[in-house]
Amino acid sequence: MNFAWRSWPGRLAHLWRSSLQLRTVAITVLLSGAAVFVIGSYMSVTIGTNLFEDRRDQVLAETASATAAGQAYFENAIDQSETVELDPIALSGQARILAAVSRPATTHVLILRSLGQDTEARMPSTNSEDFPEDVVSDELRARTAEQGDGVVHWQSVELPSDDGVHPGIVAASTLEVPTAGQYELYLVYDLVDVQDTLTFVQQTLLFGFLALIALIGAVTYVVVLLVVGPVRLAAEVSERLAAGQLEQRIPERGEDVIATLARSFNGMADGLQRQITQLAHLSTVQQRFVSDVSHELRTPLTTIRLAGDVLYNQRETFPPTTARTAELLHTQVRRFEALLADLLEISRYDAGAVELDLEPTNLVRLVEESIEAFEPVAETRGSELRVVAPGGYFDAEVDARRIRRVLRNLLGNALEHGEGKPIEVYVDSDAEAVAIAVRDHGIGMTPEQTERVFDRFWRADPSRQRTMGGTGLGLAISLEDAALHGGTLDVWAEPGHGSCFRLTIPRTRGGALTGSPLPLPPPEPVAAGAEQEKTDD
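The structure assignment produced for this chain is given below.
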């Protein structure tokens, strides 16, 4: 079964959000349609009311005229001094009354003797053929009988017919028949011609409504196309500029607002191109300068290091002051070499000339090897290095040399600022990612310091003396190594509670990170004695 229809609301919503042209045309058509509908409805009601009122006034006038004609006929036809036959007079009077109306074919007549008459002579009630039944209500008869003397009353009714129900009007008045008393005259007028006229007008309004809405939609579409087209072109050119195609420009046509926008945009693009080109040139010069200086310094530094090593190896034969000088020279030359190596590495990252040498690596073993290298330093500082590896998919495709360098930088910082307290190294993973976290319990950092901890040559406490010879570039290089693997290097710190750095990288090259196997900071490990005590309980 195909369930593609279930995605239609989402697609329509996306189309509505993403298309300014669609929203503009749709909103314009809807609002215009609402306005035209209100105006058309008002016109239809007004025209219908006017047609009905005109026809009603005509009906009342015809009824009054027909009543007068019938009254004159009955007065002339009946001689009160002689006895006459009233049956044929009633039929003739009915014919005279129908002859007085403009549309006798669609008009029905009823002559009905009023109730309560006390006369010897009686003219029979009469009605035209097919006179509709039940159209003369008791209320209309009562009003007609009470208010005689030529007053015309009317009432709207529905007339059944072969093709449905037609609107109609019943008009009523009274007749004084000599010797027979008062009779009620009812004329039923079929208003199908008025209804046909109103239907034609409504159909014309509906057709005009649809044509107007279509015209408004077409005009709006053309206008929006003229406006949105340049905007869409500007967006496309902006995307190409953002992608590095700095020569892209918007065509300039005319002198209107869109042309002014194009000229302003192109002027901005020219300025950005000049600035970006200048900055790129300065960056290239800077990178070349750092690289060249680093390479040029390596040769004399090698000579100085060799000479310093000779002096350092013979320091026991020197006087104490000279021996201390040889030790300081040896230490600073080593630090200078590390600084040059870091500068060269940073320049490679800035130039985009770094490549990974990936291979399947067991991260737990890599962490253990790094910790073994730092064990002597940890013993001199009184810090205990612990590995917390609960288990998981620890093999990952990484550049082992760079991950080892990240660990070296993180462990060095933890020992430098850990104040002799235990340091935990956490290793965990899932099916998508692996994570390594280094947690110390030392001085920690403030939020302001945490934001700058990866800046080059930045130190959290410039007054604090470093004892492990850091260059100030270790964390910056570690951040670049993590990004090169497609991962992240995050930090958590609180003053007085230590810091924690967490490296998270995909298990395979090109994998996407949706989270980290380790929280930040990881939960504190349970001590062996406490765990045994909990087991005994």
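Interim note for the steering committee: The chain has three domains: 52-191, 273-351, 359-536. The first strand starts at residue 107 and ends at 113.
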